[in-house]
């Protein structure tokens, strides 16, 4: 929806230019008012872009200026990747946000919190779309929905399908549909045995990078999980290669550098000397035992570790029950830690409820993501974990409640500031110093313990309905399956076509 954009360094601006003549599915014009509305509502919910941007201004109907109080290259990604919502639907909420700001009532005010609740509870009567497809409300069931052609979209003539059927459900639900030939493409994490079935049926497996994977989260309000030695010991006590293979076969690759963003990106941001200072936490139960003994912990007669306050190390580890790969990772991690002497009870939680429980702080240990599957800059990897699932960015509770001011090598570090500064400025080479600092601190403190990096094992059915899929060596398959997905781009570009029968 943006035709061009640019930074204006001498004015601390990021400027976007909108596509003229584009319309929403209700027939209204797509204008700058829609963009301003979107970011007004985003401000209400503490979007991280506002750690860099202070004002969003419509210069005219097709130009919007984002003024940066802290100039940063990541503003471009935050703005361009955000879905623009229609002012016709959200304009009233946006106006209330602007009124509160004008009255000096910020995020700590009762009025602001009341508006957050109002916006959260809001249910639009219609879903207005700008893209080539829109939801057919009559098609919605628990099992699926249908996207139909939005003839008013500027890109409607470029796509080659009149409708798309989207199936609801996680891996157990989707697997039989793939095997039956009812699904052309899926991004779920399929167990190795299921992947083998797909291949035997002649279904292609695409392995795009994800730049992310599962990690063990800790509730830092719970002793002794808030002790760095305990988290480091847990990192040593888990064979991450085994965990990845059990969970996702060759698509689950053990994390090496333990810095919180993808191993493949580490050499792009850190020098060889900086990489050499990282602890890779190679599987070593003797080292894990040494760490726990060094802080006064000891094994009980039953082999379970007892902390320095006399309490057994027994915890619950939750994970999204319907995520086959994360469930397997959680079960395997629980088995390995229990064998080591940290007794873990694994428990699956409904996948839509699980992130809410983490943000509310209603957990002891949990499997959630590390890294960023949607944005390439390391800043996004840290923001996604340490802001959104922490008191910094959660509007539902304190999350993991990991203190962002910490002592590292005898000096206090402000991790929140470091993460913000890791994207500061318009020169990415200059950002590398701060990225390296955050990486080092993360590696030392392990606020979460990354397990393995996920690569897609996406089934692609090339025989039933769709042809002209990008081959494995196509540049689009370097994109994350959950970011700039190769199938969505190929669809929008008109590359994918129906099989003529």
Highest-level CATH class of the largest domain? Alpha Beta
Low-confidence stretches: none
Measured as a percent range, the helix fraction is 25-40%
Strand elements, count: 22
Q: What's the domain count?
A: 3
Q: What CATH architecture of the largest domain would you give?
A: Roll
Count of alpha and pi helical runs: 17
The overall average pLDDT, rounded, is 96
Query: What is the makeup of the main sheet?
Result: 7 strands, mixed
Spatial shape: globular
CATH level-4 homologous superfamily of the largest domain: Dipeptide-binding Protein, Domain 3
Strand content bin = 15-25%
Distance between the termini: 35 Å
Can you walk me through this structure?
With 501 residues, the chain is α+β, with helices and mostly antiparallel strands. The protein folds into 3 domains: 2-121, Dipeptide-binding Protein, Domain 1 (Dipeptide-binding Protein, domain 1); 133-209 and 455-498, D-Maltodextrin-Binding Protein, domain 2, CATH 3.40.190.10; 211-454, Dipeptide-binding Protein, Domain 3 (Dipeptide-binding Protein, domain 3, Roll). Helices cover 34% and strands 21% of the residues. The protein is built from 17 helices and 22 strands. The strands form 7 sheets. Strands 9, 10, 13, 14, 15, 18 and 19 form a 7-stranded mixed sheet that branches. Helix 3 (87-102) packs antiparallel against helix 4 (110-121). The longest helix has 18 residues, at 428-445. The protein starts with a strand and ends with a strand. 41% of the residues are buried.
């Amino acid at each position: 929806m943006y035709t061009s954009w640019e930074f204006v360094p001498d004015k601390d601006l990021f400027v976007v230019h909108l596509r003229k003549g584009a319309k929403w599915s209700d027939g209204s014009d797509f204008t700058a008012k829609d963009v301003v509305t979107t970011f007004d509502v985003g401000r209400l919910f503490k979007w991280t872009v506002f750690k860099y941007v202070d004002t969003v201004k419509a210069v005219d109907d097709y130009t919007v200026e984002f003024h940066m109080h802290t100039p940063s290259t990541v503003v471009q990604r935050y703005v361009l990747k955000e879905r623009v919502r229609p002012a016709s639907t959200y304009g009233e909420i946006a106006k209330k946000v602007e009124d509160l700001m004008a009255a000096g009532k910020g995020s700590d005010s009762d009025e602001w919190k009341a508006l957050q609740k109002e916006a959260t509870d809001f249910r639009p009567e219609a879903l207005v779309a700008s893209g080539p497809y829109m939801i057919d409300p009559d098609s919605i069931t628990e099992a699926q929905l249908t996207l139909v052609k939005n003839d008013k979209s500027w890109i409607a003539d470029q796509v080659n399908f009149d409708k798309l059927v989207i199936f609801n459900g996680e891996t157990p639900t989707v697997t039989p549909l793939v095997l039956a030939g009812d699904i052309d493409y899926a991004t779920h994490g399929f167990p190795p045995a299921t992947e083998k079935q797909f291949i035997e049926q002649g279904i292609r497996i695409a392995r795009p990078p994800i730049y992310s994977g599962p990690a063990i989260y800790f509730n830092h309000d719970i002793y002794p999980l808030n002790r760095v030695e305990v988290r480091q010991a847990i990192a040593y006590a888990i064979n991450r290669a085994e965990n990845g293979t059990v969970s996702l076969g060759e698509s689950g690759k053990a994390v090496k550098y333990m810095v919180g963003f993808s191993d493949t990106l580490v050499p792009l941001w850190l020098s060889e000397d900086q990489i050499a200072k990282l602890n890779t936490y190679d599987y070593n139960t003797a080292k894990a035992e040494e760490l726990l003994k060094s802080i006064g912990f000891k094994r009980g007669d039953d082999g379970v570790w007892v902390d320095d306050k006399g309490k057994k190390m027994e915890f619950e580890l939750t994970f999204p029950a319907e995520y086959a790969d994360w469930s397997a990772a959680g079960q395997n991690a629980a088995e390995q830690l229990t064998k080591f002497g940290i007794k873990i009870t694994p428990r699956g939680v409904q996948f839509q409820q699980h992130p809410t429980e983490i943000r509310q702080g209603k957990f002891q240990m949990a499997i959630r993501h590390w890294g960023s599957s949607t944005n390439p800059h390391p800043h996004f990897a840290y923001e996604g974990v340490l802001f959104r699932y922490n008191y910094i960015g959660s509007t539902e509770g304190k999350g993991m409640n990991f203190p962002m001011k910490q002592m590292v090598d005898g000096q206090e570090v402000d991790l929140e500031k470091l993460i913000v500064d890791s994207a500061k400025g318009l020169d990415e080479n200059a950002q590398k110093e701060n990225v390296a600092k955050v990486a080092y601190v993360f590696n030392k403190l392990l606020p979460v313990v990354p397990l393995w990096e996920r690569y897609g094992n996406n089934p692609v059915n090339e025989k039933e309905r769709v042809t002209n899929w990008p081959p494995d060596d196509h540049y689009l398959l370097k994109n994350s399956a959950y970011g700039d997905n190769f199938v969505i781009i190929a669809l929008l570009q008109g590359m994918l076509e129906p099989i003529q029968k």
